[in-house]
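Journal club side-thread
Mid-discussion, someone asked how the predicted structure for our own chain would compare to the paper's figures. Pasting it here so we can look after the session.
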Amino acid sequence: MSVADVKKNAQDKMAKSIETLRANLAKVRTGRAHTGLLDSVTVEYYGSPTQLSQVANLTLIDARTIGVQPYEKKMLGTIEKAIRDSDLGLNPSSFGEMIRVPTPPLTEERRKEMVKLCKSEAEDAKIAVRNVRRDGNEQLKKLVKDKAISEDDERRASDDIQKLTDKAVVDIDKLVAEKEKEVMTV
């Protein structure tokens, strides 16, 4: 393994941590409806748990309502029950062959809880990035110990990994600030 491999590996892992944070923040509810809200809902489909998006078409009817149209009519009740039983606090209602899922407006208290959740997700992402930095530095120390690189090369590479870490932390803070602004907007 070379210094370039260590840096590339660290950069890739940090990017994955940021993408994971982005995905987790997308699940945090804002005042508006979006189909990603139902990504975590699973439905019992022929004996196996299946994601809702695999058994139904998800659409936005308006800014506060998600439409769920099952591919099979008999799944209507099962899907409605799965959405109701999920911990999202949504109350779906059948409307012919479609299920309407209105998203209730968020209270100020609930918005603050969502912001806390966002900050918690950000902290987890920062911890993941710092762990990647630690692993990269340990790999560099091992290369020095094996006499594959000099101590000066290790110090330079370590500084580069620190710069990657700083950039990743700034990106995480930006993502959370955007999401916080989005959540607090009424």
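Post-session note: The mean pLDDT is 88.
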